[in-house]
Amino acid sequence: MKHVGRSHPRLGDTPFLTGKAGFVGDIALVDQLHMRVVRSPIAFGRLRGIDAAAAFAVPGLVAVWTAEDVAALPPVGFRLAAAPTLEPYCQPVLAVDVVRYVGEPVAVVFATTATAAEDAAELVALDIDLLAPVLTLTGSSRGFEGETRPAEAATVRKAFGDLAGAMARADRVVEVSVGLDRDGAVPGETRGVVARWDGGRDVIEIWGDARLAPANRDALATMLGRPLAGVEINAVAVGGDFGMRGELYPEDVLVAYAARTLERPVRWIEDRREHLIAADQARAMAATAKAAVAADGRLLALDVEFAIDQGAYLRPTGTMVADLTAAMLPGPYRLEAFRAVGRVRMTNRTPAGAYRGAGRVEATFVRERLMDAVAAATGSPPLEVRRRSFLTPEEMPADRHMTTLGVPMTIDSGRYQSLIDQLTKRFSLELVHRRAIDRRAHGELAGVGTAVFVETSAAGKYEHVTLSVDPSGNLELVTTASELGQGLSTLLAQIVADIVGADPERIRVTHGASTRLGDGVGTFLARSSVMAGTAAQYAAELMRDKILAGAEALLEVPRERLTIHSGRIREADRHFGTALELADLARKMLPGGPLAGADGRGLVTEGWVEGEGMTFPYGVAVAVAEIDAMTGLVRVPRVFIGYDVGNAINPALVESQIATGAVQGLSSALFTSLDVSPAGEPLRVGLTDYLIPSATESPSVDVLITEDAPSLTNPLGMKGAGTAGVTGIGAAVAAAIDEALQVPGFTTHLPVRPVAIRNLLRKRSGKSERG
Amino acid sequence: MSRNIRITMEVNGEDRTIVVEARTTLADALREGCHLTGTKTGCEDGVCGACTVLVDGEPIRSCLMFAVQAHGRAVRTVESLSDGITLHPLQVAFHEHHAVGCGYCTPGLLMLTLGALERSPEIDEDEIQRVVAANSCRCTDAHAVVKAVRAAQTAMRAGRE
Questions:
Q1: Within 13 Å of residue A736, how many CA atoms lie on the same side as its CB?
Q2: Where is the 2Fe-2S ferredoxin-type domain (chain B) (predicted)?
Q3: Which CATH architecture has domain B89-160?
Q4: Contacts of B105 in chain A (CB under 8 A)
């Protein structure tokens, strides 16, 4: 049976269903210490002194560290695009002289129990002189009193074509000013890390998110002055990552350093308040975007200036979000000229990092709001405005004349209009539109909005896997890419199963295995199915060759006449009888033996893939919004998403990624933001303040997956899907709200505030009363 | 800091006697005192429901209950659902309906919906959705969870007949 393309239930669910899966908080090591972080309660101030004397009265307290005690540790550096000008923006592992956001680690306490560590941390007194915090993008231009580093850490510029000429030739120029609030991944499990120094081997063993284990291992080894072999990062089960987790944080460095220095295992598990003030946040941005439109309604050029609220420090992702935002602004449209200027602005807010759909969510919101404004300005239907300017399949691959993340940007494939047409037909969207019109005619506030988006995936230079067959006929695929609940293990097993001729259930995928493989990159930018999937394909093809060569020698039957099914090698022209079990062959092909294969290694193969450019999957998001006139509350009962994934290895997993991504996107559009008081104190410090949409608020998400535009960058034609659901929702919901209210351009900012809608409706009814 | 207290509770059918502080939550007592780490904590505010267990058959947030309050009562955790060989119909249904994401909230969702189905075996889809909405989850499709619970309801009904 063929496995690729089937909605195979996920492999490896059982530990999660039975409570056996080992998350980091489930690890308890003998003699372990608990670390608790003392965090700044002040958004911006001069750190005058730290008095820990009272903490030492707590039974079980072992140590209290401040910046002086960790002076040997450099600040946390960059994983991507390091540059000397960015170094002043790196975060020290503990604050030195200045605190720059509420939640910044100032001291750490180590004790024999978690409660003792918490009790002691509360007794550490901080003496901080207040400075005036900068909390918004508009305020930061005046700079910070008492900071030597400029408020704008970096400026990203991308451009092509003759912008001035296109603007001059334009029939009209349409402009919008739009923005997004801060939000965050806020996964079910908070962050955590456990480390132990194995003195016998002189290795610091770390347990935690291993999404970026190779890079983090290298960074930690450098920071701690150890050989790479002196640091091991072991994968654990992870309760939601979404790009927030897995990057190196100050706490990770502190735990690793403490395990070595104190010579006892050290455990740090974040509480929810800490998570909401100290884990990476994202999305906050403001943009002014102009479109030059020709007389026939086609787009000529885009000119966008945007600023990103980076918070107090740059994170290991550096300026990635600004870079991707700029690069993804053109989306699916043909442009003669383009210019983007992205400003990375520092504020006294929690540092911002990557969050699912990083850069694409921001770019899509700006561009699609602008396209709706063009539609309103030209009096054309929104979908018609888009259709006129789509790049056509004949124009693919389309060179975007710029780079992103250092890679030349060429859109590999895409059939944008076809996807819209298919989605419209598949879910009878004409009826959905007509129903909204009908409801409005009856006085209801209902509308439908559409956003078209281009995604990107598969950056990162290479990926490496090994594949082996053990003497019992079980296969193991080892990868540094991570299973984060997205079903990667299942996808990889399906790919290997088809090629080798084995059952997926007999294939164990060992993920996050940087301790087994020296190299590999990890999981980000929806790259794993593409990169690790292609490496797995190569390893599986080599394995099939080896198996057939071994069987040929053993059976004295030419390999052309042999097939492999469910781990049994048969003669293709015989209907009955198994010539050889894979297990028997594996035993005969053990390394060193006469049948060990040309390389003498037996049934072991490797798959190595080098980055052959990025893939650019694309999609359409359609949202239905209905507004309660009394309260101004917006409800989104239905969402439709069409997405071209190139090759859906497991359609159910893709659909699940899209459906859940859509709910996360809806969350940022309607419900959640991480706002602060005028003094910079976070207002969302628990899940009572930060309201995650539940089953009741979750819309029904209808997904259409197409495979019309396979990627040219990998032989299976795969494109990533991890961020597809989240990217277009904000823009689609904004358009739906505008239509429901019959006020084009009303929604300029997400999340939408019911009070703004209420004010509009009140003003409107006031007018009608007077009229 | 805090007085130690000896409590005895029935956990998954077995009497367990452990020593806790007065302030120790039932969630911590199960995880650390009984080494049953299947019960998760996500917010410790009683909102997310990852820590949901059954106490005398009722779903409760174990982060909001002190361990001493469970003295003399019967607690069931996710570890009670399967004997290690056969999965409970709810577990099977969650697997088959792609109702497991990262898996962190799964134990809480299983115990919450088990409690609901044991109390009201015939609840309808709307009610199931309201029950599921009591817990929060960031990466599982809530509608898949509702479908799974519906399927489990049918399987459990067949099991009773």
A1: 33
A2: 5-81
A3: Orthogonal Bundle (1.10)
A4: 188, 239
Using CB atoms, pick whichever of A58, A688, A698 lies closest to residue B47: A688
- CATH of A460-610 given 3.30.565.10, 3.30.590.20, 3.30.365.10, 3.40.50.2300: 3.30.365.10
Q: Could you check whether A285-458+613-767 and A460-610 share the same CATH topology? A: yes
Question: Closest Cα of chain B to A687: distance in Å?
Answer: 6
Alpha-carbon radius of gyration of chain B = 16
pLDDT tens, position by position, A479-490: 988 888 788 999
**From A468-482, A567-581, A665-679, the region with the lowest mean pLDDT:** A567-581
Q: What is the pLDDT of residues A632-677, one digit of tens each?
A: 999 999 999 999 998 899 999 899 999 999 999 999 999 999 999 9
> Under 8 Å CB-to-CB from B18, ≥6 apart: which residues?
B6, B7, B29, B33, B34, B67
For residues B100-126, average pLDDT: 96
Q: In CATH, what class is A285-458+613-767?
A: alpha beta
A582, A607, A604: which is closest to A495 by C-alpha?
A607
Interface test with B, best of A10, A11, A16, A194 (most B CBs within 10 A): A16
Helix (H) or strand (E) holding A604: strand A604-610
B85 at A interface, C-beta within 8 A? no
ipTM of the complex: 0.98
Architecture of domain B4-78: Roll (3.10)
Q: For residue A697, which residues of chain B lie inside 8 Å, CB to CB?
A: 133
Q: Which of A25, A656, A697 sits opposite B144 (nearest CB)?
A: A656
- Single-letter amino acid code for the residue at B52: T
Summarize the confidence of residues A388-408 as an average pLDDT.
Answer: 93
Instruction: Verify whether the Cβ–Cβ distance A695 to B146 is below 8 Å.
Output: yes
DSSP string, A155-219: EEEEEES-HHHHHHH-SEEEEEEEEE--B----SS--EEEEEEETTTTEEEEEE--TTHHHHHHH
Average pLDDT rounded to a whole number, residues B33-48: 96
Q: Mark yes or no for CB contact A115/B130 under 8 Å.
A: no
In chain B, where are the structural domains located?
4-78, 89-160
End-to-end Cα separation, chain B, in angstroms: 54
* pLDDT, position A613: 73
**Site from B92, B104, B109 to mutate, A interface, most A CB atoms within 10 angstroms:** B104
CATH code, A17-131+190-238+245-278: 3.90.1170.50
Q: Kindly tell me if the per-residue pLDDT of A151 is higher than 70.
A: yes
Confidence of residue A769 (pLDDT cuts 50, 70, 90): very low
The tens digit of pLDDT for each residue in A504-518 reads 999 999 998 888 876
Inter-chain residue contact A115 with B2, CB threshold 8 Å: yes
pLDDT at A368: 98
Is the confidence at residue A140, as pLDDT, over 60?
Answer: no
Question: How high is the pLDDT of residue A768?
Answer: 52
Domain parsing of chain A, residue ranges: 17-131+190-238+245-278, 285-458+613-767, 460-610
Number of H helices, E strands in chain A: 18, 29
pLDDT band (50, 70, 90) for residue A723: confident
Residues of A in contact with B94 (CB under 8 A): 13, 17
Q: How far apart are the first and last CA of chain A?
A: 71
> In chain B, whose CA is at the least distance from the CA of A241?
B102
